[in-house]
Amino acid sequence: MAQVKVNKTSPSGGWSDLWKKEDYWAVWLGLGVVLIAILLWSFGSNIMKTIAVSIPSWSEFGEPTAFLGQNIGNIILLYLCFLAIFSLAVKVLGYDVKQFAIGFTVLYVLSVIVTIFGSWTLMKKWNLEAPLLALAVGLILGNFLTIPKWLDAALKTEFFVKTGIVLMGATLPFTLIMQSGPVAFLQATIIAVTTFLTIYWAGTRLFGLDKRFSTCLAAGGSICGVSASIAIGGAVKAEKQHVSVAISLVVVWATIMIFSLPILIKALGIPDGPAGAWIGTSEFADAAGIAAAAAIGEQAIKTFTLMKVVGRDMFVGIWAFIMALISVTKWEKRDDGTKPNAGEIWSRFPKFVLGFFLASIIVTLLISGLDASAAKTVDAGIIKPIKELRSWAFIFTFLSIGLTTRFRDLTSVGWKPFAAFTTGVLINVPLGYILSVIIMGGYWALVK
């Protein structure tokens, strides 16, 4: 299954966390790109448009060849920019930069190839645009070939998606977040609480699983997938194997949802806005949800982000603190009398969510001080290039998911954890449909 390095959650390291934690680096890189884009725009430079390569749709094989011939320099420049910023973070975080650089080069070439074929009108007809195609290619390669260590070193799934989400913040007006945030949070609360309790109850009562194991499964299925499983697994001192199994099940069901939700949405004729919100309530991982929403459209990406990132991901820190408190006071017997403190919320809180908000606020404040004509130049010189860079970051993410997913590892999961998690899925998906499409469908359809 997904080969994710799992660490026990440790107390905050103070100021050193600002450069030693992946979450913070996603914020620094995302905000750094946004600020550089604004600076270049203020000087009248078009370099962002040059770097942010967008491969157009095509139907004849000669079209992408001609495009590559005309834009090969820009594609190489984009590669060098991504390599430089990611390598900086990788170096400070303590990974092998040389191995990352070699692996990222291969990942980038694969991303270009996937994006070219994902822009083919035939692929779009079959809903296999770049995000889903990247996942499919990654799954095929990852399960039929042996991934070398130097390539594995570049498959930073969580890092790529967190950076992409921060960049996404710059493309969503903060006024929209403020308007939709409370609705998203209310809906997310209903979904998260219901799904968490369902999986926990099924795990402990129906299938006799350990409380900590059931907590990891419930967190992964109700909040934000892999990150929640790791954070809350650490908060309750779950076994490493339990966290790994929870991560595996998150990836399995997230992958299933990537393909099944867009098919259901189009078969039922659900509008883009409610469709994105439904994906936001029913997907278990940010990267997988983005892939499914991208198969629907830009409005679906917006409502998905409001529902998943603004709504559900916000629960990680709060839920980790609550479960740590329960673990210490109810499940554990300690002699030293130590208890979790309020700082645990900040320690577990996904920092990239703050980066998402900051990026949105920065661009919104910039636009608010301009007239309509100048605002259009911001859209062309800042927002659109950032959207393209965001899309590339997500392609890296989807390829990484596929390349690190091993179907053969499913046999080690066992049927009871799978059954407990699936019980949550059977509640989560219909409830998400009822809330997003039937009850609040009119609201989500108006989000632009």
From TrEMBL:
<feature type="transmembrane region" description="Helical">
    <location>
        <begin position="215"/>
        <end position="236"/>
    </location>
</feature>
<feature type="transmembrane region" description="Helical">
    <location>
        <begin position="242"/>
        <end position="265"/>
    </location>
</feature>
<feature type="transmembrane region" description="Helical">
    <location>
        <begin position="389"/>
        <end position="407"/>
    </location>
</feature>
<feature type="transmembrane region" description="Helical">
    <location>
        <begin position="184"/>
        <end position="203"/>
    </location>
</feature>
<keyword id="KW-1133">Transmembrane helix</keyword>
<feature type="transmembrane region" description="Helical">
    <location>
        <begin position="419"/>
        <end position="446"/>
    </location>
</feature>
<feature type="transmembrane region" description="Helical">
    <location>
        <begin position="128"/>
        <end position="147"/>
    </location>
</feature>
<keyword id="KW-0812">Transmembrane</keyword>
<feature type="transmembrane region" description="Helical">
    <location>
        <begin position="72"/>
        <end position="93"/>
    </location>
</feature>
<keyword id="KW-0472">Membrane</keyword>
<feature type="transmembrane region" description="Helical">
    <location>
        <begin position="100"/>
        <end position="122"/>
    </location>
</feature>
<dbReference type="Pfam" id="PF03601">
    <property type="entry name" value="Cons_hypoth698"/>
</dbReference>
<keyword id="KW-1003">Cell membrane</keyword>
<feature type="transmembrane region" description="Helical">
    <location>
        <begin position="349"/>
        <end position="368"/>
    </location>
</feature>
<feature type="transmembrane region" description="Helical">
    <location>
        <begin position="25"/>
        <end position="44"/>
    </location>
</feature>
<comment type="similarity">
    <text>Belongs to the UPF0324 family.</text>
</comment>
<dbReference type="InterPro" id="IPR018383">
    <property type="entry name" value="UPF0324_pro"/>
</dbReference>
<feature type="transmembrane region" description="Helical">
    <location>
        <begin position="159"/>
        <end position="178"/>
    </location>
</feature>
<protein>
    <submittedName>
        <fullName>YeiH family protein</fullName>
    </submittedName>
</protein>
<feature type="transmembrane region" description="Helical">
    <location>
        <begin position="309"/>
        <end position="329"/>
    </location>
</feature>
